[in-house]
Amino acid sequence: MLHDIINWIVNTVHEWGYFGIFVMMTLESSFFPFPSEVAIIPAGYLAAQGKMNLVGVIASGIAGSLVGALINYYLAMTLGRSFLVKYGKYVLLKPETLNRMDTFFSKHGAISTFTGRLIPVVRQYISLPAGLARMDLKVFSLYTSLGAGIWVVILAILGYFIGNNEQLIKENLTLVTLITLACVAVLILTYYLKQKRRSV
User: Fold this and answer.
1) Of 146, 169, 156, nearest to 58 (Cα)?
2) Residue 182: how many other CB atoms lie within 10 Å
């Protein structure tokens, strides 16, 4: 049954093409808990078969991620925190989640919109505190695109090389996620040390 589901996902991505990737990644970056792996890994696999272009897959994924993030950014900026707390539960946004995102954003500043894109769960919601803080839109878009780009490239390459082996994907995705989180930790530490030196 799992094999049939995987085949259905691959066929759906193939049928929808780059627009489908864009839509799926837009959803993944907004309030909908849609895993990016479902869209990008099969697309990378199709690119390996010559049915899609790897650059097109990555570009569509990044574009969708940015649009989804901008939706959250503008919703937060326009509607405000009280609205998100009151009605967020209807789109699976709990007040505790929003509080955690506030803390993460306050602790790490603007760069959190970059590093946050590489961390599961944080990735979907880090745009909200950025919108509430009215973070500079150009900086937000740049950091979001860079962070999303790294994640999309990782998934696309995984799909390209081992997309036909579900077990390898599971094993390597966990490893890649851990490595990515370690890199994020290094980036945050480096940023913190630089900020600390400037303040001295």
Assistant:
1) 156
2) 10
- Residue listed under structure tokens 């990735």: 123
Q: Where are the alpha helices (DSSP H) in 109-165?
A: 112-115, 122-125, 127-132, 137-162
The CA-atom distances, in angstroms, between 178 and each of 65, 72, 99 are 21, 26, 24
> Which residues constitute the domain of residue 11?
2-199
pLDDT, tens only, 86-140: 767 666 677 777 777 777 777 777 788 887 787 777 777 888 888 888 889 999 9
State the total domains in the chain.
Answer: 1
Give tens-digit pLDDT for 17-71: 898 889 888 888 887 766 777 778 888 888 888 888 999 999 999 999 999 999 9
The reply to whether the predicted model has a pTM over 0.85 is no
User: Quick one: angle between helices 137-162 and 2-29, nearest 10?
Assistant: 170
